[in-house]
Amino acid sequence: MNIDQESVTTLEDLRGDLAQRYKWTPTGGSSVERAVVQDDMAALARDGYVIWENLLSADQCREIREVLRPLLGHTGRNSFEGRRTQRIYSVLSRTRACDRLVDNPRVLAVLDRLLMPNYLLSALQAINIQPGESAQLAHHDDGFYPVPRPREPLAAATIWAIDDFTADNGATVVIPGSHRWGKRRPGPDDPTRPVVMPAGSCVFFVGTLWHGGGANTSATDRLAVTAQYCQPWLRPMEAFTLSVSRDIAREVSDDIRRMLGYSIHPPFVGAVDGLHPLRLLGIEED
């Protein structure tokens, strides 16, 4: 529908981009083979998570580790953040070293099918679990949205192993199949699984899956980066349009820029002064 030539007469008309010009384009996930994505979606439907091993090279992990280590400081403010866990928030505002984790094609291919178009990046954090940390409270990542379960996930997350994930160094612990639960919480008899995977690997899970950081009973740290995503009509955990400068928004990929909020969810969610937010960056359409 051309808004300039036709009237908006039905609710269906509001599904178009009333801000005009900057249309939705396919994400980098379109490059992933259909059969691969189908297998990933089947694993998510069955277990609530899928593990992809060795997506990053040893050199890439080393670069990320070298960039993030100097930024690690205070440990958590409470037991959920972790008294012996260091966190870096708003990683996008600090370094470009983790950009390819955020817009990895394998991740985007699944998000394209799991969430609505124009989904948002909700958080990008580095998490370093130190020796002596206790197990984190089990939770599901979209639990702070007050929508009763059972339901479809409102969000999804990745956790990238920058160091090896082992059963004793704080590997994320998941409860397979718990994404389908209703109101009930995990109990002592529910089977759990530590996500053991080598550095460079990634675990992707839906926002309704119960999980938590594991206890670190080893003598070494366990560094990870987590990128979390949410439906385009929800408020993200991190306010990236405030923490990420416009200069950085111009520098990142089209996919990341869209996920930061420089996008329109039809008909006009995300508009700035009634116009598309990309105009703030001086970016013209091709």
Automatic annotation (TrEMBL):
InterPro entries: Phytyl_CoA_dOase-like
Superkingdom of the organism of origin: Bacteria
Molecular function GO labels: 2-oxoglutarate-dependent dioxygenase activity; iron ion binding
Keyword set, alphabetical order: Dioxygenase, Oxidoreductase
Record-linked SUPFAM superfamilies: Clavaminate synthase-like
Similarity field: Belongs to the PhyH family.
Name used for this protein in its record: Phytanoyl-CoA dioxygenase
Organism, as annotated: Mycobacterium gordonae
